[in-house]
Amino acid sequence: MNFKLQAQSGKARAATLITKHSTIQTPVFMPVGTGGSVKSLV
């Protein structure tokens, strides 16, 4: 995994996150499903 900082303004930053499977431009909305939230949908 690699993290490349593209720009920064105060505490805000834009970056590129490079993983084994994909490249992700930040900021990004990335929902995470926990076990409890997934069970409530079924």
Secondary structure elements and their pairing?
Blueprint: E1 2-9, E2 12-18, E3 23-26, H1 35-41
Antiparallel strand pairs: 1-2, 2-3
Structural class: alpha+beta
The largest sheet is:
3 strands, antiparallel
Provide the helix percentage: 10-25%
Distance between the termini: 33 Å
Q: State the oligomer.
A: single chain
What is the overall number of helices? 1
SSE string? EEEH
Query: How many strands?
Result: 3
Average pLDDT, all residues: 86
Q: How large, in whole angstroms, is the Cα Rg? A: 15 Å
State which percent range the strand residues make up: over 45%
Overall morphology? elongated
Unreliable stretches (pLDDT < 50, length at least 5) are none
**Which strand order do you get reading across the main beta sheet?**
1-2-3
Describe what this molecule looks like in 3D.
- With 42 residues, the protein is of the alpha+beta class.
- Helices cover 17% and strands 45% of the residues.
- It contains 1 helix and 3 strands, in the order βββα.
- Strand 1 and strand 2 (12-18) form a beta hairpin.
Short description:
Helix content is 17%, strand content 45%. The chain has one helix and three strands. The longest helix is centred in the last third of the chain and has 7 residues, at 35-41.
